[in-house]
Amino acid sequence: MGQIVPAETFRGVCRARALMEDEYATTLTLDRLAIASGLSRFHVIRAFARVYDQTPHQYLVGVRLARAKALLRGATSVTEACFEVGFSSLGSFSALFTRRVGRSPRVWQREVRGFFAVPAALRRPFVPYCLLQRYLGAISEKHASPPR
User: Fold this and answer.
1) Where are the domains of the chain?
2) Measured between alpha carbons, how far is 109 from 75 in angstroms, rounded to an integer?
3) Calculated CA dihedral for residues 12, 16, 21, 24, nearest 10 degrees
4) For residues 87 and 97, is the Cβ–Cβ distance under 8 A?
5) pLDDT(126) > 80
6) Burial class of residue 30, CB neighbours in 10 A (0-12, 13-18, 19+)
7) Across the chain, which distance is largest between two alpha carbons, in Å?
8) How confident is the model at residue 131 (pLDDT cuts 50, 70, 90)?
9) Residue 138 burial (CB < 10 Å; 0-12/13-18/19+)?
10) Closest Cα partner for 86 from 69, 108, 67?
């Protein structure tokens, strides 16, 4: 963490950070961060950099990339992940991702999916026991011999 700031400024910076964490996929302007923090536009930049050792923009980009990685680990395509986390250009997203991560989003996704690949035998759908029990009970009642 960076330098110490007054308590009220710190609370304001924390509010700005919370806004970025909650609304990372929206268009966050410096004015919105200033309003949320209760600080002036330029003071929020300076105070945020003192506390977190990066500007609000750098922090927001990091949050978006972390969320994009989480989406890319699943079944989300690179294009879907790009727009879902708030980037407006696939080219800019891919270039930034490559600069920060060291691999393109597609290559990173293939590597991660290969690393966490689930064996085919384990990909069967999960059926809750209560449902299975009910289904098997219905079958056994249907095929039960009539009382004599």
Assistant:
1) 1-53, 65-142
2) 10
3) 170
4) no
5) no
6) middle
7) 90
8) low
9) exposed
10) 67
Tens-digit pLDDT profile for residues 38-80: 999 999 999 999 999 999 999 999 999 999 999 999 889 999 9
pLDDT surpasses 80 at 106: yes
pTM as predicted: 0.73
Q: DSSP letters along the chain, please?
A: ------HHHHHHHHHHHHHHHHSTTS---HHHHHHHHTS-HHHHHHHHHHHHSS-HHHHHHHHHHHHHHHHHHTT--HHHHHHHTT-S-HHHHHHHHHHHHSS-HHHHHHHHHHHTPPPGGG-SPP--HHHHHHHHHHHHHHTSPPP-
Two structure tokens written together for 85: 């986390």
| Rounded-to-integer distance, Cα 12 and Cα 39, Å | 7
Spatial CA neighbour of 38 closest among 9, 17, 67 = 9
The Cα–Cα gap between 36 and 46 comes to 15
Does position 137 have pLDDT exceeding 80, yes or no? Answer: no
